[in-house]
Design brief:
The protein has one domain: c-terminal domain of poly(a) binding protein (Orthogonal Bundle). By secondary structure, it is mainly α. The longest helix has 40 residues. Helix 1 runs parallel beside helix 2 and helix 2 packs across helix 4. It is 75% helix and 0% strand.
Length: 118
């Protein structure tokens, strides 16, 4: 049986790995075993981070809406409840954007909610 030399294949795999771990500190970018492990961990952290980002943004939106509602003499929970009762279907992302970029419109929405609940 013929002898199989894998030097080129291995080198290619290693180079591909080192390309992906470029910029990592110390041996994580230089040694094959350590680099592979670092890359696997980085992938796991990135996946988890993508889930956390959604959670973080929702919390930010809620904070913005709550503070803006407080300035207009209304609590966050009463405001959100009033939105549902008034059949205003705006999600938290859009409401937060209105708070930042168009406060007058947000004030009108709060006024509508107040009229609808009282």
């Amino acid at each position: 049986m013929a002898r199989v030399k894998r030097g080129i294949v291995s080198r290619r795999k290693h180079n591909k790995l080192f390309e992906q771990t470029k910029g990592y500190r110390g041996t994580k970018s230089r040694l094959t075993k350590v680099a592979r492990e670092a890359l696997l961990h980085a992938g796991a952290y990135a996946y988890h981070g993508r889930k956390l980002r959604k959670r973080d943004f929702r919390a930010l939106w809620i904070t913005r809406i709550g503070e803006a509602a407080k300035l207009r003499d209304m609590s966050y929970s009463k405001f959100m409840n009033g939105l549902k009762k008034s059949n205003i279907e705006l999600d938290r992302k859009i409401l937060s954007d209105l708070v930042v970029n168009d406060p007058e419109t947000f004030t009108q929405i709060v006024g509508r909610v107040k009229r609808g609940t009282s």
